[in-house]
Design brief:
224 residues; 8-stranded mixed sheet; 26% helix; Coenzyme A biosynthesis bifunctional protein CoaBC; ligase; FMN; binds cytidine-5'-triphosphate; binds calcium ion; two-stranded antiparallel sheet; metal ion binding
């Protein structure tokens, strides 16, 4: 690993990254999920590792290979993701939460496959714990905490309110406006907002180039 190579800018730093979707079980064969590919978070984990950080990647179900040198913890549900994040948070210098965590989970998981009936059906849901907000509430000033936001309207205002509510250093807004940005693609277009409400907009580029931009911000933040 690159961890002990002192010439690298993030040598000696520990990073915690979340990626991918979570799956919330309904019964033994069904779940509530989303279209996150995990590509953005994996690209960030890979880049942080290349810059010398010791990286723990907590990832929901994805089709991606773990980047070499990255320590991956595979999870399925939001509550499993929370447990690993709580374990690794206090030791981490850099925390990047790019997972698309389910906001709701079934109140009860059926132990047998639910059979169809003639009537309509609905599934009672409860809110999941907001992992990012939970970590943000105990963050120290030495840690750099980065969240993501996916918005379809009032993008900047919504992202800024998430940054404040979750006590983040930066929030990365994923644009839904541009073709070529978002879930299924290999490219992304981001806008980053910091605590001083400064806004930085980036061009549409590959997710690995976006990861490099985010990691440049992290390196500068830790050097300042
Ligand atoms: N997040 C989290 N735990 C949750 C939900 C979200 O850690 N249970 C994190 C995501 O990883 C992301 C950030 O919070 O970094 C914002 O996620 P997003 O879905 O955009 O915002 P929410 O706060 O869930 O609000 P909403 O979905 O209503 O816009
Ligand atoms: Ca959400």
């Amino acid at each position: 690993s690159n961890y002990l190579q002192p010439s690298l800018p993030l040598a000696g730093k520990k990073a915690l990254v979340t990626a991918g979707p979570t799956y919330e079980a309904i019964d033994p064969v069904r779940f509530i999920g989303n279209h996150s590919s995990g590509k953005m978070g994996y690209a960030i984990a890979e880049r942080l590792q290349a810059l010398g950080a010791q990286v723990t990647l907590v990832a929901g179900p994805t089709a991606l290979a773990t980047p070499p040198g990255v320590s991956k913890l595979a999870v399925t549900s939001a509550s499993e993701m929370l447990a690993y994040c709580e374990q690794h948070f206090s030791a981490a210098d850099i925390i990047v939460m790019s997972a698309a965590v389910a906001d709701y989970t079934p109140i009860e998981v059926a132990t047998q496959k639910i059979k169809k009936k003639d009537s309509e059906m609905s599934i009672p849901l409860k809110k999941t714990v907001d992992i990012l907000a939970t970590l943000g509430s105990t963050k120290s000033s030495e840690q750099v905490l980065i969240g993501f936001a996916l918005e379809t309207n009032n993008e900047l205002a919504n992202a800024l309110s998430k940054l404040k509510r979750k006590n983040l250093d930066y929030i990365v807004l994923n644009s839904m406006q541009d073709a070529g940005a978002g879930f299924a693609t290999d490219t992304n277009k981001i806008t980053v907002i910091d605590r001083q409400e400064q806004i930085q907009s980036f061009e549409l580029k590959s997710k690995s180039a976006v990861a490099a931009d985010i990691c440049t911000l992290i390196v500068k933040h830790l050097q300042a």
